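Field reference: sequence -> structure
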Amino acid sequence: MLIYGFHPVREALRHRPHDVRAVMLARGRGGQRRTEIEDLCARHRVEVRTAGAKDFGQTPESVHNGFAAELKAADRAAAVAGDADLLVLVEDVQDPRNLGALMRVCEGVGVGRLLVRDRGSAPITATVAKSSAGASEWLAVERISSSAQALERLKAEGYWVYGAAADGEPPWSVDLSGKVVLCMGGEEKGLRAHTREVCDKLIGLPMRGRVESLNLSTAAAALLYEAMRQRTAK
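Structure field:
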């Protein structure tokens, strides 16, 4: 797998250098970022290749920024430091950039694990890694076949399940300090009907302006940081 961009390449070298086969740096590009990547490669004995524009394929320069890396397959379900009692489940997110942005929020908040429903969701690709600004390297991800089955399993483990919905209660009126799973739906229709039924409660963000809703990662950030506030306070 190839990943592109300074942040994804740097985080791969920081998190799992043993999985980095080689790093490509654009010919003629210097600067502090290049020096940082070269230092990481030297420290972990990763091969560095000087590359021309054609070596980056059809990826626009504005996307790869002169940095790319070839990676071995990773076990994305591997545990990474985070709050094991705060999980996020997402389904039907078809735009890889939206999935990447969501992963960036989840990692920033310290979510213990992101569960992604396989069917209907974008795969984790170089675009996802780029959009996550490297957060995909640190976030534990579990691919699931059924949201309902996964949620029933988590309920049996003591988690409370909250679904994000426009008609839900404000998150600050709900106790988010314990074992929590936040469920987020896709760009078009939100949560599936069956998933809503499995949720213990629906939570949402009051909209006082003229737009009807926020995008996925913005809504997730607002909900998750309210959960962090409550958890930090207690």
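Note: The beta strands are 2-4, 20-26, 47-51, 67-71, 83-90, 111-117, 141-144, 160-169, 180-184, 201-203.
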